[in-house]
Design a protein that fits this description.
heterodimer, A: alpha/beta, Spore Coat Polysaccharide Biosynthesis Protein SpsA, Chain A, seven-stranded mixed β-sheet, 10 strands, globular, B: 562 residues, alpha/beta, 8 strands
Chain lengths: 431, 562
């Protein structure tokens, strides 16, 4: 009886995993699969004259190494400076970053550029959404956008968003973000490809069905919309995803633009510890957002289901982490019948399909950015594949534990600018 | 930002791209998926073709042809899946990949009376063949139409596929080849959709993979499929993904098959010994069987005693000769201008690939011709259409063209149907009398003889009798009460260790009855090169005939061993 129950569980979980994996695979390939989605994802080929003005929020914490160059890139973007204002947001204890930002502001001031300010906040919690809320009342322009301190933005990003917002009459635009340092360490290739598929394909699916967890930067909001929403939820570890779902629940259209030429370039976390902490935060944030229940306010069942599916994913990932060794053990110890074992073959097959798609994705990514994917990178990816999945599962488990213990403090991801050195050599192919 | 902002006019970044000169879009291109719409005439032709298929294959389905050994084997294995959850009631030796009888089992399982829903196991299987045929007619019609851009080509192809006596004879039978062709045509159809999406290409690959584990000879079509895929996805933004996922999807079902053998520890022969003169004794092996099959030689197809002259040409020489000529023409046109004549190249190479398989000199059985029938039909249809189009150049014919396009093929069809020598609808019997062809002859009930044979067994033979017979009776004796658990085919009795060494102990005295047909007698002799059936033949010599029936060249008998 117990054995029959175990077989039933093995078969059911195998089928469930197969269906889920197939769906994820479809989402990864959504843009490539559908010609209309591919067309919608594209950036316009020609830009309108500057019409909208932008308030740029640059939240930074202990970013002494990169903050100056980030300010420089934003201020020198290919857009009239009178239509841009920049706010570097720091907590009052982060004197190092404040000093560096003020040093840069002084330098720019000598050139006659006076559109950068530092906003310092002293109250708790010290985290990104709280900083954004602190700066929001200071903004004066049509559109508010966020960049992270380590972001390499494209000079034409404001022209692009100006064109999209004016032409298509949308009030929220999520532009592409791309990790670039795909050869930095053992997990960086897979991390880079996660971003690639997420922004290039999957987000378009979410936007199409009106249920989209937004990214943390290179996202543009009409200011009046943000004011109406009351800013970000500063208790939420993924305030960006939460904001996206709140906007979706309002019925607001979100336009996603992913064009390899105009992506904001970022870096993978420098160490495994940082990577795990970042993932833990994301997973926990999704769990918080799921618990919060904004997704239940969405108008259609499809939207609610999609939001639930995304937000519940970290829990599934954690359970998967527990299930995999368990199922392997059961197969080895129990010597399951051939038919049951063949059912276990299905998720393995899908896993292989995922890997193949990632390999092709690597060639797509490198091809689009003027880089070259070597067979060595593919071999490294193959070796890193399973450990990477286990790390993700561990981070999800860690998030579950933190959530149960009621720990909601912000674990910061360190930035060292690893994406800047290689990308300056390897310019975007058509940038 | 105000909602009523009037968008300023776009300004080009850099040089404004020149708008390409407006060109008239070609009406038809296989490569780009530009297929003419089916239209009302096309729909009428399609419905007509489907109805023809139902009639030619459905009428007289359970009476003609005679139940054959292979039909019995596949239904027997489907029975084993449904009743015993195993791939065969005997030792499964990987002689064929199992998807065909898995499909049969999937068909039978939900039916109200399962194997007896349509009278007996083979009839139930044959009804599925009818459904498969009708679905295949649709697929062949559409595939031909998309490769040629012509409803006429599709209609001609469907005509031969439906009406050829060769087609009717083999496509009514429960054969893996029929199921394989369905999956293959489905895969081809998917590759010929207007848009080649990743999903559709993946689905097409999966269908091809299923075809490959239904009947392995599908592999001879694969090069053409690969080329078609290459032409269809060339230059598309998703080509990297499609070109990777298509072979992956095709390999996935094969992977499942190999995994099955691996899990059963039956992938490799013991000690990795592939010696063909020394088969593995302790367990069967997928790779050994594959190796053995690859090394079988026969080479008698084209001889006077070969199947071509004794079976295929007598059944339908017209299809074979016309198909061969059409294939050569398609290849010529296709190779001469691969860019414009992609459809011809695809049709020609599909037929050529399988012809190569038949002619390469390995073992060929009677029904191996089945997959060539739709391919030849497709080639004939496309060549007929092209030749009819060529008549545009003649001023005289041009005037009469629209009528001619329908009238000329219709005339040929009428001749084919009316001429007794063709066997399409009429035939000349052995006494020189013209009559309705066997496949539609209401007076002819070949399977009725087999029913009578079974009825005699049930009435006169005890259920514990040890019987040697052919596989076509297996389902009747094992799935209908009273069961005959010791009734086994001569193939298994002479080769399966459990039967040969334990039940019969290779002694003729241990056989009680032999249920015989003249075809089985030939099979026993053909299978006895190494003397493995000597003890069965000895039993036959020491037996009395207790029942017999004859119709035409079919003779059925029952012997009681002394």
């Amino acid at each position: 009886m117990i054995v029959a129950f175990i077989y039933f569980v093995l078969v059911s979980v195998s089928i469930l995993l197969t269906v889920q994996s197939a769906h994820v695979l479809y989402l990864m390939l959504y843009t490539w699969d559908r010609a209309d989605a591919e067309r919608r994802a594209r950036a316009p080929e020609s830009f309108l004259p500057p019409h909208l003005s932008f308030s740029v929020l640059l939240p930074a914490r202990h970013e002494e190494d990169v903050i100056q160059s980030t300010i420089e890139r934003v201020v020198r973007a290919d857009y009239p400076s009178e239509l841009l204002e920049v706010f570097v947001i720091c907590s009052e204890d982060d004197t190092g970053t404040v000093a560096k930002a003020e040093e840069k502001i002084e330098e720019l001031g000598r050139e006659g550029l006076h559109n950068v300010r530092v906003v310092v906040f002293g109250d708790k919690p010290i985290n990104k959404p709280h900083g954004l809320n602190a700066a929001l009342p200071h903004t004066t322009k049509d559109v508010v956008t966020i960049f992270d301190a380590e972001d390499d933005i494209h000079p034409k990003i404001f022209s692009l968003v100006n064109t999209v917002m004016v032409q298509e009459q949308v009030r929220v635009v999520q532009a592409g973000v791309q990790l670039m340092n795909y050869q930095s360490n053992w997990y960086s290739t897979l991390n880079v490809l996660e971003y690639f598929f997420w922004f290039k394909s999957r987000l378009h699916y979410h936007a199409h069905y009106g249920s989209i967890p937004l990214g943390g930067n290179t996202v543009f909001f009409a200011r009046e919309l943000l004011m109406r929403l009351g800013g970000w939820d500063d208790r939420n570890l993924t305030e960006d995803a939460d904001m996206g779902l709140r906007i979706s629940a309002m019925g607001e259209t979100v336009r996603v633009v992913y064009d390899d030429r105009y992506v904001t370039k970022e870096e993978t976390p420098p160490t495994l510890g940082h990577f795990i902490r970042q993932r833990t935060r994301w997973s926990q944030g999704f769990m918080q957002t799921l618990k919060k229940g904004t997704w239940k306010e969405m108008p259609t069942r499809k939207q609610r289901w999609l939001a639930f599916y995304v937000l519940a994913f970290p829990r599934g990932q954690a359970l998967l982490g527990l299930y995999l060794p368990l199922s392997l053990g059961m197969i080895l110890i129990l010597k399951v019948p051939v038919l049951i074992a063949l059912f276990s073959y299905l998720p393995v097959l899908l896993l292989a399909a995922h890997f193949l798609v990632q390999v092709v994705g690597l060639y797509e990514f490198t091809g689009a950015h003027g880089l070259e994917a070597s067979p060595k990178a593919v071999v490294r990816m193959a070796i890193a594949w399973f450990p990477f999945q286990m790390v993700l599962a561990y981070a999800a488990l860690r998030a579950m534990r933190r959530q149960m213990l009621g720990r909601h403090d912000w674990e910061k991801t360190q930035h060292v600018g690893a994406h800047r050195a290689p990308t300056e050599e390897a310019e975007s192919r058509v940038g | 930002m105000s909602d009523n902002t009037r968008p300023p006019q776009p300004v080009a970044v850099g040089d404004a791209p020149q708008r390409p000169a407006r060109r008239r879009r070609p009406r038809f291109s296989v490569e780009r998926g530009w297929f003419p719409p089916l239209g009302s005439k096309g729909k009428a032709a399609l419905v007509f073709s489907l109805l023809t298929g139902v009639l030619t294959h459905g009428y007289h389905l359970f009476r003609y042809p005679l139940y054959l050994t292979d039909e019995g084997i596949y239904m027997q294995r489907a029975w084993s899946l449904v009743r015993e959850t195993s791939l065969s009631p005997y030792t499964y030796d990987y002689d064929h990949a199992p998807m065909g009888w898995i499909t049969l089992a999937g068909w039978v399982f939900p039916l109200p009376s399962q194997f007896e829903t349509f009278g007996n196991a083979i009839n139930t299987g044959r009804f599925l063949m009818l459904l498969v045929h009708v679905a295949s007619v649709y697929l062949l019609f559409e595939v031909t139409r998309r490769l040629s851009g012509s409803v006429l080509a599709a209609t001609v192809a469907a005509f031969f596929f439906n009406v050829s006596p060769l087609a009717v004879y083999f496509q009514r039978q429960v054969l893996l080849d029929n199921l394989m062709m369905f999956w293959l045509l489905l895969s081809l159809f998917v590759l010929l959709r207007r848009e080649t999406t990743i999903r559709s290409v993946f689905g097409g690959g999966l269908a091809l993979g299923i075809a490959l584990i239904t009947k392995e000879n599908a592999v001879f079509f694969v090069p053409t499929f690969m080329y078609l895929l290459y032409r269809r996805i060339k230059g598309s933004p998703s080509s990297r993904f499609t070109s990777t996922l298509w072979p992956f999807a095709a390999a996935a079902p094969i992977g499942a098959y190999v995994t099955y053998a691996l899990l059963k520890n039956e992938l490799m022969p013991s000690s990795l010994d592939f010696d063909l003169n020394n088969p593995p004794a302790d367990h069967v092996s997928l790779l050994y069987t594959l190796w053995w099959q690859l090394n079988r030689n026969q080479g008698t197809l084209l001889s006077h005693n070969g199947l071509l002259h004794t079976s295929w040409l007598p059944r339908d020489g017209i299809l074979l000769v016309a198909g061969l000529i059409a294939m050569v023409i398609c290849l010529f046109w296709g190779l001469r201008d691969r860019k414009r004549n992609l459809g011809f190249l695809i049709a020609g190479t599909l037929a050529f690939g399988y012809s190569f398989y038949l002619l390469r000199g390995s073992v060929v059985l009677d029904f191996y011709i089945t997959p060539l029938i739709p391919m030849f039909a497709m080639n004939i249809g496309m060549v007929v259409d092209r030749m009819m189009k060529a008549s545009y150049s003649s001023r005289m014919l041009q005037r009469a063209h629209s009528g001619l396009r329908v009238a000329l093929p219709s005339l040929v069809v009428l001749i084919l149907l009316a001429a007794p020598s063709t066997g399409y609808l009429m035939t000349v019997n052995t006494e020189g009398v013209t009559q309705i062809a066997d496949q539609y002859q209401s007076k002819l009930n070949l399977t009725g003889m087999q029913h009578a044979q079974i009825a005699w067994v049930r009435k006169n033979v005890p259920t514990n009798a040890r019987i040697v017979m052919d596989d076509d009776l297996w389902g009747e004796l094992h799935d209908v009460r009273p069961f005959y658990p010791y009734a086994h085919s001569h193939w298994n009795a002479s080769s399966d260790p459990d039967l040969r060494d334990k039940l019969f102990k290779k002694k003729w005295q241990n056989i009680d009855y032999i249920i015989m047909s003249n075809k089985m007698r030939k099979s026993i002799l053909a299978n006895n090169a190494d003397g493995r059936e000597n003890w069965i033949l000895q039993a036959l010599r020491n037996s009395d005939r207790v029942w017999s029936d004859t119709q035409g060249d079919i003779k059925l008998e029952i012997y009681r061993v002394q």
